[in-house]
């Protein structure tokens, strides 16, 4: 059993499963954020529910944070082990002939997404935790939309978000599509699944870009 956990196949499966879980999170996160561009009320209502529901707060949120940390720690481990296993470094690598540019650079696109998450937690998650669990400020169900709008006032921050979403596409493009194979999904639907993953990798980050830009130009 411990041999299995330590095996590189098991690590790839763990990476794929945690990645797939984060893809689900991205989809729900995008859906909620997207409502902000056409209805402040709906966004407030959904955010208030997510921010105060005990199952979301004390079960789903810790699972999500664990999922994020697990995925990036495992990502580093995989990269280190792969580098070690590859006695002759990229010098012998024949570029795109062996593996696509994006698959070889998952660690870099991942690092940009990680840096984005640092900024993003500083922007939203930290103030939220302070508001709720340090200041114990009274809950105002209409506060979410103005807080969100305020964050996208700055063109620099909006630009950083947009740039990060481009890297998110690069990361998902290879990560999501190859995750099916890593979990052993290998049948007549594999090609369709891969196409779906690639479409998702473009559509969802593009949607996030639309949200960021719309909020930036919707200041009032
Ligand atoms: C325009 C794009 C985005 C907007 C407007 C946005 C907005 C928000 C907001 C308002 C929160 C709420 C924090 C809270 O109440 O706890 C949040 C949390 C979070 N966001 Fe985003 N987000 C965006 C893109 C992303 C992307 C692309 C990712 C992942 C790569 C991401 C990952 C997270 C995570 C992990 C949390 C913490 C969730 C929690 O545990 O509460 N966000 N975001």
TrEMBL record:
Keywords for this protein: Membrane, Transmembrane, Transmembrane helix
Leader peptide range in chain numbering: none
Top-rank taxon, per record: Bacteria
GO cellular component, one term: membrane
Transmembrane segments: 55-80, 101-122, 158-176, 196-217
NCBIfam families from the UniProt entry: sdhC_b558_fam
Name of this protein: Succinate dehydrogenase
High-level lineage: Bacteria, Pseudomonadati, Bacteroidota, Flavobacteriia, Flavobacteriales
